[in-house]
Design brief:
This protein is α+β, with helices and mostly antiparallel strands. A 3-stranded antiparallel β-sheet has the order 7-8-9, with no helix packed on it. The protein has a two-stranded antiparallel ribbon with strand order 1-2. α4 (62-76) packs across α6 (113-127). The protein is built from 6 helices and 9 strands; from the N terminus they run ααββααββααβββββ. The protein has helices at residues 3-8, 34-43, 55-58, 62-76, 98-104, 113-127; strands spanning 45-46, 52-53, 83-85, 91-93, 131-136, 142-148, 153-157, 163-168, 174-178.
Length: 179
């Protein structure tokens, strides 16, 4: 056995170089079916060290926090252009569109447009998706967008291929939104 193999503990040169991580006092999860997989996903991803990694724990790491802050800030400062097609080559701002005021003035009662975009982008970066509830006014016109926490949203596809969104509120009640 060579010095490097002995020093790095590679052992038998014919043995596989890839070894499973060592389990420490029950930290290893065995997934035998869909129920086990669902439970493991709810708990977060376990690292090789046995620690659960969620969006909240990841944001405690300075590098993750800085990356999310920089990317979300850049997206928050980008304009959202709602355009109207005049012809094949010409577009103009659609300032009279129903969503113009929502995206450029007030998406909801407590957020400015930059704050809303920053929050939505952070949800996408940390959870993989972002959801918001459309608030409708008189005549069905959209007058606001309320962010929904992506960790409490379940997306299901029905038999007719349409999506439905099951949101769990803080008090435990569930609300079903259609596509």
């Amino acid at each position: 056995m060579s010095f490097l193999r002995q020093f790095f503990g590679l052992g038998d040169p014919g043995a596989s170089a890839v070894r499973p991580p060592q389990a420490m006092s029950g930290d290893l999860i065995t997934i035998t079916g869909p129920e086990d997989l669902e439970r493991a996903l709810r708990q977060g991803n376990l690292s090789n060290a046995g620690q659960s990694v969620t969006d909240e724990t990841a944001m405690r790491v300075a590098a993750v926090y800085a990356c999310v802050r920089i990317i979300s800030g850049a997206v928050a400062n980008m304009p959202i252009g709602i355009k109207r097609r005049i012809d094949d080559r010409t577009r103009e701002d659609a300032t009279d569109h129903a969503l113009w005021d929502v995206f450029h003035r007030r998406p909801n009662r407590w957020q400015k447009p930059a704050q809303f975009k920053r929050m939505m982008q952070a949800h996408v970066l940390l959870r993989g998706n972002a959801y918001s509830l459309k608030t409708r006014g008189v005549g069905g016109r959209v007058i606001g967008l309320t962010p929904l926490h992506p960790g409490r949203m379940k997306v299901r596809q029905r038999d007719d291929m349409a999506l439905e969104y099951l949101f769990t509120r803080k008090d435990g009640t569930r609300v079903l939104f259609q596509q």
